[in-house]
Design a protein that fits this description.
alpha/beta; Rossmann fold; 9-stranded mixed sheet; 5-stranded parallel sheet; 9 helices; NAD(P)-bd_dom_sf; Gfo/Idh/MocA-like_OxRdtase_N; GFO_IDH_MocA-like_dom
């Protein structure tokens, strides 16, 4: 079992602590949180071992799970890497692209593995259909959330939209050609609602909308490709695949047939892939353990996290024009 320690015991950090404690792939050694009152409370309530400094925790483990505010990701990662420890970094990977690139370079130099916590990659609705998403040419996503003060210190792009950016980049095998976006600050000092149009070199277009001031929660993506439409509901964890194929010469009574202006007939049929319930955060942490133990590439690499951050900042830069 890999010895793991958690940096940061806030809302998400406590979830990581609980799941790592349950995991059969890790031995939870303890945690460090700079806020003494919170650290003492977490240690007393859950029985986790509290460390007095980051360096002491890093020295005691094989893997460092960094669940601190984004501003400190870089410094925590650098210290862990230089100590020869593998790192799991919550999203976004860091505060700036330059910091992320330094983390990548150090990880290569010290031969350590790193994974970024883009948890939607492990959402069962997404994993159920990802292999069927092949060369999508139009993508539409909506990630809407009711207002929550937590996370409003950064633009909605880094708080919410970056989830969809990463998922999109994972299925579009092409470089980003251009980005256009608009954002509005309603309650916060930074944009609370944003829309971006991402164009890729292969012609694919992604229209991405995120809001943290909505009346209801929604996390949906739609992928359109040749002869197929695929929908993913990350929130309700359901998915649907609508496909078209050449219509049979003699359609059945219940076959759904469409005919275009050229007279070509297509049959529409529906698939509802099995979605197996899971805990996506536990799955991503366990997948990282597998990558370390088997010396394989993590599912969400440091490079993946950096590219998502790069596109996120291209979107944010559009707000300043």
């Amino acid at each position: 079992m890999l010895k793991v320690g958690v940096l940061g015991a806030g809302h998400l950090g406590k979830i990581h602590l609980r799941l790592l404690n349950q995991s059969e792939k890790y031995q939870l050694v303890g945690f460090y949180d700079p806020f003494e009152e919170n650290a003492n409370k977490v240690a007393a309530e859950f029985g986790y071992t509290k460390f007095d400094s980051i360096s002491e925790l890093i020295a005691a483990v094989d893997v460092v799970d960094i669940v601190t505010p984004t501003l400190s990701h870089h410094d925590c990662a650098v210290e862990a890497i230089k100590a020869g420890k593998h790192i799991f970094l919550e999203k976004p990977i860091s505060n700036t692209v330059a910091e992320a690139e330094e983390i990548i370079a150090l990880a290569k130099e010290y031969n350590i593995k790193g994974q970024v916590g883009h948890v939607e990659r492990f959402n069962p609705a997404f994993t159920a259909v990802k292999n069927q998403i092949q060369n999508p040419m139009f993508i539409e996503t909506h990630r809407l959330a009711e207002f929550n003060p937590r996370g409003t210190d950064v633009p909605v792009v880094l708080d919410l939209m970056i989830h969809d950016i990463d998922a999109i980049l994972s299925v579009v095998q092409s470089k980003v050609k251009s980005v256009n976006a608009s954002g509005v600050a309603v309650i916060s000092d930074s944009p609370d609602i944003a829309n971006a149009r991402i164009e890729f070199e292969n012609g694919c277009v992604a229209n991405v909308t995120s809001s943290r001031i909505s009346m209801k929660n929604m996390r949906k993506s739609r992928f359109f490709q040749k002869d197929a439409y695929i929908s993913v509901d990350y929130l309700d964890k359901v998915c649907e695949v609508v496909k078209m194929k050449d219509a049979p010469e003699v359609p059945g009574d219940f076959d759904m047939i469409l005919q275009n202006a050229e007279g070509v007939k297509k049959q529409i049929y529906f698939e509802n892939p099995d979605v197996h319930a899971n805990n996506a955060i536990l799955d991503e942490l366990n997948a990282f353990a597998d990558a370390i133990n088997n010396n394989t590439t993590p599912i969400v690499t440091l490079e993946d996290g950096t590219e998502a951050l790069r596109v996120a900042y291209q979107i944010i830069d559009c707000f300043k024009k």
